[in-house]
Protein backbone atom coordinates (compact mmCIF):
# COMPACT_ATOMS: atom_id res chain seq x y z
CA UNK A 1 0.00 0.00 0.00
CA UNK A 2 1.33 3.39 -1.01
CA UNK A 3 1.83 5.69 1.98
CA UNK A 4 2.18 9.43 2.38
CA UNK A 5 5.89 8.87 2.99
CA UNK A 6 6.20 7.31 -0.47
CA UNK A 7 4.56 10.39 -1.99
CA UNK A 8 6.89 12.70 -0.06
CA UNK A 9 9.93 10.70 -1.22
CA UNK A 10 8.75 10.73 -4.84
CA UNK A 11 8.08 14.49 -4.81
CA UNK A 12 11.25 15.32 -2.86
CA UNK A 13 9.38 17.10 -0.08
CA UNK A 14 8.47 16.50 3.56
CA UNK A 15 5.46 14.51 4.74
CA UNK A 16 4.12 17.74 6.23
CA UNK A 17 4.20 19.42 2.83
CA UNK A 18 2.29 16.54 1.24
CA UNK A 19 -0.30 16.74 4.00
CA UNK A 20 -0.70 20.49 3.51
CA UNK A 21 -1.24 20.05 -0.24
CA UNK A 22 -3.79 17.26 0.16
CA UNK A 23 -5.72 19.17 2.83
CA UNK A 24 -5.61 22.50 0.96
CA UNK A 25 -3.86 24.10 3.90
CA UNK A 26 -3.53 27.92 3.84
CA UNK A 27 0.19 27.47 4.57
CA UNK A 28 2.15 29.02 1.66
CA UNK A 29 3.38 26.41 -0.85
CA UNK A 30 4.87 27.27 -4.22
CA UNK A 31 2.90 26.26 -7.33
CA UNK A 32 5.84 24.14 -8.49
CA UNK A 33 5.96 22.19 -5.22
CA UNK A 34 2.19 21.69 -5.22
CA UNK A 35 2.34 20.38 -8.78
CA UNK A 36 5.14 17.92 -7.93
CA UNK A 37 3.12 16.57 -5.01
CA UNK A 38 -0.05 16.15 -7.08
CA UNK A 39 1.89 14.42 -9.86
CA UNK A 40 3.44 12.03 -7.33
CA UNK A 41 0.01 11.28 -5.88
CA UNK A 42 -1.36 10.51 -9.34
CA UNK A 43 1.63 8.43 -10.45
CA UNK A 44 1.71 6.32 -7.27
CA UNK A 45 -2.08 6.03 -7.00
CA UNK A 46 -2.03 7.28 -3.44
CA UNK A 47 -5.35 7.31 -1.53
CA UNK A 48 -5.45 9.35 1.71
CA UNK A 49 -6.50 7.48 4.84
CA UNK A 50 -10.10 8.61 5.32
CA UNK A 51 -10.23 7.41 8.92
CA UNK A 52 -7.12 9.32 9.90
CA UNK A 53 -8.32 12.42 8.13
CA UNK A 54 -11.73 12.26 9.80
CA UNK A 55 -10.10 12.08 13.22
CA UNK A 56 -8.01 15.12 12.39
CA UNK A 57 -10.86 17.16 10.90
CA UNK A 58 -13.55 15.87 13.30
CA UNK A 59 -15.80 14.97 10.38
CA UNK A 60 -16.26 11.96 8.12
CA UNK A 61 -18.33 13.57 5.33
CA UNK A 62 -20.85 10.75 5.73
CA UNK A 63 -24.59 10.92 6.42
CA UNK A 64 -26.73 8.08 7.77
CA UNK A 65 -30.09 7.68 6.01
CA UNK A 66 -32.73 5.59 7.79
CA UNK A 67 -35.48 4.16 5.55
CA UNK A 68 -38.44 2.07 6.75
CA UNK A 69 -38.88 0.14 3.48
CA UNK A 70 -36.47 0.38 0.57
CA UNK A 71 -38.81 -1.70 -1.63
CA UNK A 72 -41.53 0.97 -1.47
CA UNK A 73 -41.33 3.10 -4.67
CA UNK A 74 -42.26 6.14 -2.59
CA UNK A 75 -38.73 6.35 -1.21
CA UNK A 76 -36.37 6.39 -4.24
CA UNK A 77 -37.43 9.95 -5.10
CA UNK A 78 -36.63 11.05 -1.55
CA UNK A 79 -33.28 9.27 -1.63
CA UNK A 80 -32.43 10.88 -4.98
CA UNK A 81 -33.16 14.35 -3.60
CA UNK A 82 -30.99 13.71 -0.55
CA UNK A 83 -28.17 12.20 -2.59
CA UNK A 84 -28.12 15.03 -5.14
CA UNK A 85 -27.62 17.67 -2.45
CA UNK A 86 -25.20 15.46 -0.49
CA UNK A 87 -23.08 15.04 -3.62
CA UNK A 88 -22.96 18.78 -4.15
CA UNK A 89 -21.81 19.26 -0.55
CA UNK A 90 -19.21 16.47 -0.66
CA UNK A 91 -21.07 13.97 1.54
CA UNK A 92 -21.53 10.23 1.07
CA UNK A 93 -24.79 8.52 2.10
CA UNK A 94 -24.93 5.34 4.21
CA UNK A 95 -28.37 3.82 3.56
CA UNK A 96 -30.03 1.77 6.32
CA UNK A 97 -33.24 -0.14 5.61
CA UNK A 98 -35.04 -0.80 8.91
CA UNK A 99 -38.09 -2.75 7.64
CA UNK A 100 -39.95 -0.88 10.40
CA UNK A 101 -38.16 -3.10 12.94
CA UNK A 102 -37.13 -1.60 16.27
CA UNK A 103 -34.30 -4.13 16.56
CA UNK A 104 -32.90 -3.29 13.12
CA UNK A 105 -33.26 0.42 13.86
CA UNK A 106 -31.19 0.06 17.03
CA UNK A 107 -28.55 -2.03 15.29
CA UNK A 108 -28.15 0.49 12.48
CA UNK A 109 -27.91 3.36 14.93
CA UNK A 110 -25.01 1.62 16.67
CA UNK A 111 -23.28 1.11 13.34
CA UNK A 112 -23.75 4.76 12.40
CA UNK A 113 -22.25 5.89 15.69
CA UNK A 114 -19.29 3.55 15.19
CA UNK A 115 -18.83 5.01 11.71
CA UNK A 116 -18.91 8.48 13.28
CA UNK A 117 -21.40 9.85 10.75
CA UNK A 118 -21.69 13.63 10.70
CA UNK A 119 -25.49 13.59 10.67
CA UNK A 120 -28.61 11.46 10.22
CA UNK A 121 -31.79 11.78 8.19
CA UNK A 122 -34.81 9.73 9.25
CA UNK A 123 -37.71 9.03 6.92
CA UNK A 124 -40.88 8.09 8.79
CA UNK A 125 -42.00 9.37 12.18
CA UNK A 126 -42.41 5.89 13.64
CA UNK A 127 -38.78 5.10 12.86
CA UNK A 128 -37.41 8.12 14.68
CA UNK A 129 -39.64 7.45 17.69
CA UNK A 130 -38.13 3.97 17.90
CA UNK A 131 -34.68 5.51 17.62
CA UNK A 132 -35.28 7.89 20.50
CA UNK A 133 -35.95 4.91 22.74
CA UNK A 134 -32.39 3.70 22.10
CA UNK A 135 -30.52 5.23 25.05
CA UNK A 136 -27.22 3.76 23.91
CA UNK A 137 -27.31 5.81 20.75
CA UNK A 138 -28.35 9.13 22.25
CA UNK A 139 -26.47 8.94 25.55
CA UNK A 140 -23.45 10.92 24.31
CA UNK A 141 -23.24 14.06 22.19
CA UNK A 142 -26.25 14.72 20.01
CA UNK A 143 -25.75 13.92 16.35
CA UNK A 144 -27.30 16.54 14.03
CA UNK A 145 -30.54 14.96 12.84
CA UNK A 146 -33.38 15.83 10.46
CA UNK A 147 -36.64 13.91 10.05
CA UNK A 148 -38.85 13.56 6.99
CA UNK A 149 -42.34 13.21 8.44
CA UNK A 150 -44.12 14.16 11.65
CA UNK A 151 -42.57 12.98 14.91
CA UNK A 152 -42.46 13.75 18.61
CA UNK A 153 -38.68 14.10 19.01
CA UNK A 154 -36.79 17.36 19.29
CA UNK A 155 -35.42 17.38 15.73
CA UNK A 156 -36.23 19.69 12.82
CA UNK A 157 -38.45 18.09 10.20
CA UNK A 158 -39.69 18.49 6.66
CA UNK A 159 -43.16 17.14 6.07
CA UNK A 160 -46.47 17.44 4.31
CA UNK A 161 -49.82 18.12 5.96
CA UNK A 162 -51.17 14.58 5.88
CA UNK A 163 -54.33 15.52 7.74
CA UNK A 164 -55.29 18.25 5.27
CA UNK A 165 -54.29 16.13 2.26
CA UNK A 166 -56.42 13.21 3.41
CA UNK A 167 -59.35 15.55 4.09
CA UNK A 168 -59.04 16.86 0.55
CA UNK A 169 -59.11 13.33 -0.89
CA UNK A 170 -62.24 12.43 1.09
CA UNK A 171 -63.89 15.76 0.27
CA UNK A 172 -63.33 14.95 -3.41
CA UNK A 173 -65.10 11.59 -3.04
CA UNK A 174 -67.95 13.21 -1.13
CA UNK A 175 -68.32 15.81 -3.89
CA UNK A 176 -68.78 12.90 -6.31
CA UNK A 177 -71.81 11.79 -4.29
CA UNK A 178 -70.19 9.07 -2.17
CA UNK A 179 -71.50 8.66 1.38
CA UNK A 180 -70.08 5.25 2.27
CA UNK A 181 -66.29 5.49 2.05
CA UNK A 182 -64.05 2.69 3.27
CA UNK A 183 -60.44 3.23 4.32
CA UNK A 184 -57.33 1.04 4.31
CA UNK A 185 -54.81 2.48 6.75
CA UNK A 186 -51.08 2.05 7.20
CA UNK A 187 -49.44 0.53 10.30
CA UNK A 188 -50.56 1.97 13.63
CA UNK A 189 -46.93 2.81 14.49
CA UNK A 190 -46.73 5.19 11.53
CA UNK A 191 -47.42 8.86 12.32
CA UNK A 192 -48.21 9.28 8.63
CA UNK A 193 -50.97 6.65 8.82
CA UNK A 194 -52.36 8.15 12.02
CA UNK A 195 -52.55 11.61 10.43
CA UNK A 196 -54.21 10.32 7.26
CA UNK A 197 -56.79 8.47 9.33
CA UNK A 198 -57.44 11.66 11.28
CA UNK A 199 -57.99 13.53 8.01
CA UNK A 200 -60.43 10.84 6.87
CA UNK A 201 -62.43 11.12 10.08
CA UNK A 202 -62.45 14.93 10.07
CA UNK A 203 -63.66 15.07 6.46
CA UNK A 204 -66.54 12.72 7.26
CA UNK A 205 -67.49 14.76 10.33
CA UNK A 206 -67.43 18.06 8.43
CA UNK A 207 -69.74 16.54 5.81
CA UNK A 208 -72.14 15.33 8.51
CA UNK A 209 -71.30 11.68 7.85
CA UNK A 210 -70.91 9.17 10.67
CA UNK A 211 -67.58 7.44 11.21
CA UNK A 212 -67.98 3.65 11.10
CA UNK A 213 -65.06 1.61 12.45
CA UNK A 214 -66.22 -1.34 10.34
CA UNK A 215 -65.29 0.68 7.25
CA UNK A 216 -61.63 0.85 8.33
CA UNK A 217 -59.08 -1.95 7.92
CA UNK A 218 -55.38 -1.82 8.79
CA UNK A 219 -52.88 -2.49 6.01
CA UNK A 220 -49.10 -2.48 5.82
CA UNK A 221 -48.35 -0.12 2.89
CA UNK A 222 -47.78 -3.09 0.52
CA UNK A 223 -49.86 -4.28 -2.48
CA UNK A 224 -50.47 -7.61 -0.74
CA UNK A 225 -51.64 -5.73 2.35
CA UNK A 226 -54.07 -3.72 0.24
CA UNK A 227 -55.41 -6.88 -1.38
CA UNK A 228 -55.93 -8.61 1.97
CA UNK A 229 -57.57 -5.53 3.51
CA UNK A 230 -60.01 -5.19 0.62
CA UNK A 231 -60.91 -8.87 0.87
CA UNK A 232 -61.58 -8.34 4.59
CA UNK A 233 -63.85 -5.39 3.85
CA UNK A 234 -65.83 -7.41 1.31
CA UNK A 235 -66.18 -10.28 3.78
CA UNK A 236 -67.78 -8.14 6.47
CA UNK A 237 -71.54 -8.83 6.55
CA UNK A 238 -73.97 -6.08 5.49
CA UNK A 239 -71.09 -3.67 4.81
CA UNK A 240 -71.66 -1.53 1.73
CA UNK A 241 -69.25 1.06 0.41
CA UNK A 242 -69.05 2.89 -2.90
CA UNK A 243 -65.62 4.44 -2.47
CA UNK A 244 -62.26 3.49 -1.00
CA UNK A 245 -59.42 5.63 0.35
CA UNK A 246 -56.05 3.94 0.85
CA UNK A 247 -53.15 5.42 2.78
CA UNK A 248 -50.72 4.81 -0.05
CA UNK A 249 -50.73 3.89 -3.74
CA UNK A 250 -49.24 0.42 -3.29
CA UNK A 251 -52.21 -0.65 -1.19
CA UNK A 252 -54.51 0.96 -3.76
CA UNK A 253 -52.92 -1.20 -6.47
CA UNK A 254 -53.54 -4.31 -4.36
CA UNK A 255 -57.13 -3.20 -3.71
CA UNK A 256 -57.73 -2.66 -7.45
CA UNK A 257 -56.67 -6.26 -8.08
CA UNK A 258 -58.93 -7.56 -5.31
CA UNK A 259 -61.90 -5.58 -6.62
CA UNK A 260 -61.35 -6.96 -10.11
CA UNK A 261 -61.00 -10.52 -8.78
CA UNK A 262 -64.37 -10.10 -7.06
CA UNK A 263 -66.08 -8.88 -10.21
CA UNK A 264 -66.31 -5.23 -9.17
CA UNK A 265 -65.62 -2.39 -11.60
CA UNK A 266 -63.67 0.77 -10.76
CA UNK A 267 -65.02 3.43 -10.55
CA UNK A 268 -68.52 2.21 -11.51
CA UNK A 269 -68.95 -0.01 -8.42
CA UNK A 270 -66.23 1.39 -6.17
CA UNK A 271 -64.20 4.57 -6.65
CA UNK A 272 -60.60 4.37 -5.41
CA UNK A 273 -58.26 7.15 -4.24
CA UNK A 274 -54.67 6.52 -3.19
CA UNK A 275 -51.87 8.59 -1.71
CA UNK A 276 -48.29 9.44 -2.85
CA UNK A 277 -48.63 9.45 -6.67
CA UNK A 278 -45.88 6.91 -7.29
CA UNK A 279 -44.96 6.41 -10.99
CA UNK A 280 -47.11 3.26 -11.17
CA UNK A 281 -50.25 5.26 -10.32
CA UNK A 282 -50.60 6.62 -13.85
CA UNK A 283 -50.04 3.22 -15.50
CA UNK A 284 -52.52 0.94 -13.71
CA UNK A 285 -55.99 0.50 -15.20
CA UNK A 286 -57.94 2.52 -14.43
CA UNK A 287 -55.35 5.20 -13.79
CA UNK A 288 -55.29 6.01 -10.10
CA UNK A 289 -56.64 9.19 -8.54
CA UNK A 290 -54.21 10.03 -5.77
CA UNK A 291 -52.58 12.68 -3.61
CA UNK A 292 -49.26 13.75 -5.16
CA UNK A 293 -46.41 14.13 -2.67
CA UNK A 294 -43.29 16.14 -3.69
CA UNK A 295 -40.92 13.31 -2.74
CA UNK A 296 -37.81 14.68 -4.46
CA UNK A 297 -38.27 18.09 -2.83
CA UNK A 298 -38.71 16.40 0.56
CA UNK A 299 -35.28 14.81 0.13
CA UNK A 300 -33.64 17.99 -1.14
CA UNK A 301 -35.07 20.07 1.68
CA UNK A 302 -34.09 17.53 4.35
CA UNK A 303 -30.47 17.40 3.19
CA UNK A 304 -30.26 21.19 3.00
CA UNK A 305 -31.61 21.45 6.54
CA UNK A 306 -29.00 18.96 7.72
CA UNK A 307 -26.26 20.83 5.89
CA UNK A 308 -27.30 24.04 7.66
CA UNK A 309 -27.24 22.26 11.03
CA UNK A 310 -23.75 20.93 10.34
CA UNK A 311 -22.62 24.45 9.49
CA UNK A 312 -23.99 25.81 12.76
CA UNK A 313 -26.98 27.64 11.31
CA UNK A 314 -30.41 27.78 12.87
CA UNK A 315 -33.22 26.04 11.01
CA UNK A 316 -37.00 26.11 11.34
CA UNK A 317 -38.47 23.37 13.57
CA UNK A 318 -40.93 22.35 10.83
CA UNK A 319 -40.86 22.91 7.07
CA UNK A 320 -44.09 21.96 5.30
CA UNK A 321 -44.30 21.26 1.57
CA UNK A 322 -47.56 21.31 -0.43
CA UNK A 323 -49.46 18.34 -1.88
CA UNK A 324 -51.89 18.12 -4.79
CA UNK A 325 -54.85 15.88 -5.53
CA UNK A 326 -54.36 14.35 -8.99
CA UNK A 327 -57.73 13.26 -10.38
CA UNK A 328 -57.62 10.39 -12.85
CA UNK A 329 -60.05 7.64 -13.86
CA UNK A 330 -60.31 5.57 -10.64
CA UNK A 331 -62.37 8.06 -8.67
Q: Could you give a quick summary of the protein structure above?
A:
The protein has about 325 residues and is α/β, with parallel strands linked by helices.
Give a short account of the largest sheet: 6 strands, parallel
CATH second-level architecture of the largest domain: 3-Layer(aba) Sandwich
The count of β-strands is 12
Query: Helical region count?
Result: 13
The secondary structure category is alpha/beta
How much strand? 15-25%
Strand/helix succession: HHHHEHEHEHHEEHEHEHEHEEHEE
Q: Using the coordinates above, name the CATH class of the largest domain.
A: Alpha Beta
Poorly predicted ranges? none
Global geometry: elongated
Amino acid sequence: MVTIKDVARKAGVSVTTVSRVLNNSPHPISPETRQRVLEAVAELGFLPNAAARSLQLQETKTIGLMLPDIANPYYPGIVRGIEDVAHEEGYTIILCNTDRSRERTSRYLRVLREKRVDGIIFTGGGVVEDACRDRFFWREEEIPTVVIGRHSADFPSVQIDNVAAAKGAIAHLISQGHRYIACITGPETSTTARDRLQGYREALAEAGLEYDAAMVVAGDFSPAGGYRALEELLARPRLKFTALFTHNDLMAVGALKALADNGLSVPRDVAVVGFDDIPLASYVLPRLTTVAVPVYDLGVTAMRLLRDLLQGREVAPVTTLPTELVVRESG
